[in-house]
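Final report, closing paragraph on structural work. Over the funding period we assembled a curated collection of sequence-structure pairs, and we close with a single example.
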Amino acid sequence: MRLKADITLFIISIIWGSAFVAQRVAGQMGSVYLFNGFRYLLAASVVLPVALRSRRIANPPHEISRNQYKWMAIAGFFLFMGSALQQAGMVYTTAGNAGFITSLYVVLIPVVLFLFWGEKPHWLLVVAFVLAGVGAFLLSTGGRFEVRAGDVLELVGALFWALHVIVLGKFASKFEAMSFSVGQLLVCGILNLGIGVIFEPMMQFSWNMFFAIAYTAFFSLGLCYTLQVWAQRHTPPADAALLLSLESVFAVLSGWLLLDENLVAIQIFGCALIFVAVLLSQFKEWTSGTIDPDHLVEGR
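Its predicted structure, as stored:
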């Protein structure tokens, strides 16, 4: 069972990484909020049957409380901010850059926990933060003192991904997972769609746009989230952390294979530093075996 779970998480990393290519395609067509709105609402419809089934078989039957509605709205808002900034960054940067810079949310989590909850980070996390900062700079600039606007948007988005994960870990774990997932996906989708209708011109539906929406909704968000919940119940947290951190690597590989995106040597070195920082930020938890699985749950 552990092997099947590990293989499942490995496949999830591939799908999540390749989803950055689909998002980049939509970004090149100038779509941010409407694209996000359609794919998150479609993803909610994919997860809804699973949530309804979980509610039916629960004993006693699961009821959604007012407190759960509140935290679904908060999680959905952070998910909206993260997804909107990530997709806006896709208009100006590559799939590989977006994948690696987004992965910095893992390093930012202990920083946010220290600033707002007073949780003192391990010294390894300080090292990870420095490595991640240097790596992000090299990846974005290629060694030149010029930062891409898209990479800045991705970095700010990573902060909201971190806030989203903290909400999941500290508060959402008190509620039934599938119904909470549907709720936050709906909030995120409605906010994106509402802003898109007001501020964006109506998107042109081409086959590429249709594929990008369908792929990210059905596979990256709907299927992967459901499989992740199952897989993380059957594999050690250290396995899950390592396998899911490969997402950023597959984002670069997918951009190279499918979009002909190339990195110079110093950018590859920056990617390596970010990857090491992500792994290092989890090292203390790996050795103690206390990684909170909810800290690994992330919508894309």
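Residues 289-297 have pLDDT under 50 and may be disordered. Residues 2-28 form the longest helix (27 residues). We thank the funder for supporting this effort.
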